[in-house]
Amino acid sequence: MILRAMSESPIRFERILKARFVDRPNRFLVRCREPALGRIEAFLPNPGRMWELFLPGVTTYVIPEAPSPTRRTRYTAVAVERDGEPVFLHTHLTNHVARFLIEQRRIPGLEEAEVVASEVTHGHSRFDFLLRKGGREVFMEVKSCTLFGNEVGMFPDAITDRGRRHLLELADLGSKGHRHVALIVCQGPHLRWFMPDYHTDLAFSQAFLSVRDRVQIVPVSIGWNNDLSLMDDVRLLDVPWGYLRREVKDRGSYLLLLKLRRRRRVSVGRLGSIAFEKGYYIYVGSAMRNLSARIARHLRMRKRFHWHIDYLRQVADSVTPLPIRSCERLECRMGEALSSFLRPGPDGFGASDCNCPTHLFRSGETPLHSRPFHGLLQRFRMRHPT
Q1: Which of the four pLDDT bands, split at 50, 70 and 90, describes residue 69?
Q2: Residue-by-residue DSSP string for 160-201
């Protein structure tokens, strides 16, 4: 990889190839198809889930790398296109971007800060930067956010105990009138708000709320041009603290994604014997108390059967839970939304206590590769905090 710092942009790549995403066999590897080169493999320097970004055929920005005995691939994936604009993925270079923005005095609230050092160890902790701000030394951690929609950026997109620990460490180092900094760089230009992803990582989100008065939380929105030069605008995002205090609770609704590799006939309680074709099934449920415990119960194989979904879960080859935490019960509204693009399951399945036709839906392909499905998640997870 060849980079050089520029006055107008923190990063320049000498050559960028645009390829079509094929699949992602593991967290750090993507396979793509490039018009001249055919099928190529690229290192992905980002362990996040990014399900909503890596959809089949999406344009992926890859750069060639010099041959090295320590590298498995000749390419690195640095960005992926969403709605015609690149989303920067290279987490290892986010600190490079953060340093550039601070030195250019482009981050609201950190205009007077100066970078003293990077990768700084203090006690048992290591922080991304040591700054000098207002005559005092300030530690700063940087996080890259690629999950956004409906003008809302959210972090993390997967559980991060390390991220939670960083927030608590910054809070412990602070004192009255002296707060250290958590800079969250959201890789999308059209955002207004930032929220922790309390649907995915409740513990991180609770820590985020608890350190509000002891850590300076600075979420900013940036954008990238098609040549991966940085856009001019850097926007400070609002954090809706009142909304978060209400919503960051262990309650709400959930989706269970179940996969059947072959056709199965299952006896489902009073519904009787039902034939389930191979494919993917989405179950909609809710738990307005102890949502995490409800989901954990669904994931267990050994339990006393109580709900319709217990019978289907027992024969499923894989199960993926997707919580949607909310003070409102949303399961029937989500079921109605799913029915607009998925086939309904058996009548009455999971809907004994409501008027919905069913709470189970079927898809021939994984919903995680479906734009309408991610649109639904965005609609219910990234609600405007008003």
Answers
A1: confident
A2: -HHHHHHHHHHHHH-BTTB-EEEEEEES-SS--EEEE-TTT-
DSSP 4: -
- pTM attached to this predicted model: 0.93
**CB-based contact 75:31 (threshold 8 Å):** no
pLDDT tens digits, residue range 315-359? Answer: 999 999 999 999 999 999 999 999 999 999 999 999 998 999 999
Phi-psi region of 326 (alpha: psi -120 to 50; beta: other; left: phi over 0): beta
What average pLDDT does range 290-304 have in this prediction? 96
* DSSP reduced 3-state for 243: helix
> Are residues 378 and 149 in contact, defined by beta-carbon separation less than 8 angstroms?
yes
Q: Do the beta carbons of residue 15 and residue 4 sit within 8 Å?
A: no
Distance CA 149, CA 144 (A): 15
- Report d(CA 200, CA 116) in Å as an integer: 35
Helix (H, G, I), strand (E, B) or coil at 370: coil
The whole-angstrom separation of Cα 123 and Cα 139 is: 12
Q: What mean pLDDT is predicted for residues 257-272? A: 96
Return the minimum-mean-pLDDT range out of 2-6, 93-97, 114-118, 240-244: 2-6
Task: Give CATH 2.40.50.580 domain extents, the chain.
Answer: 17-83
CATH number listed for the domain at residues 17-83: 2.40.50.580
CATH 3.40.1350.60 range(s) for the chain read 92-247
Q: Give me the pLDDT at residue 9, please.
A: 79
Tell me the CATH architecture of domain 92-247.
Answer: 3-Layer(aba) Sandwich (3.40)
Q: Which are the contacts of 384, defined by CB distance < 8 A and separation ≥ 6?
A: 150, 151, 152, 193
Distance (Å, rounded) from C-alpha 285 to C-alpha 256? 8
Which alpha helices (DSSP H) does 233-381 contain, by range?
Answer: 241-247, 291-299, 308-315, 331-338, 371-381
Interatomic CA distance for residues 299 and 316, integer angstroms: 10
3-state secondary structure of 318: strand
The share of the chain scoring above pLDDT 90, in percent, equals: 91
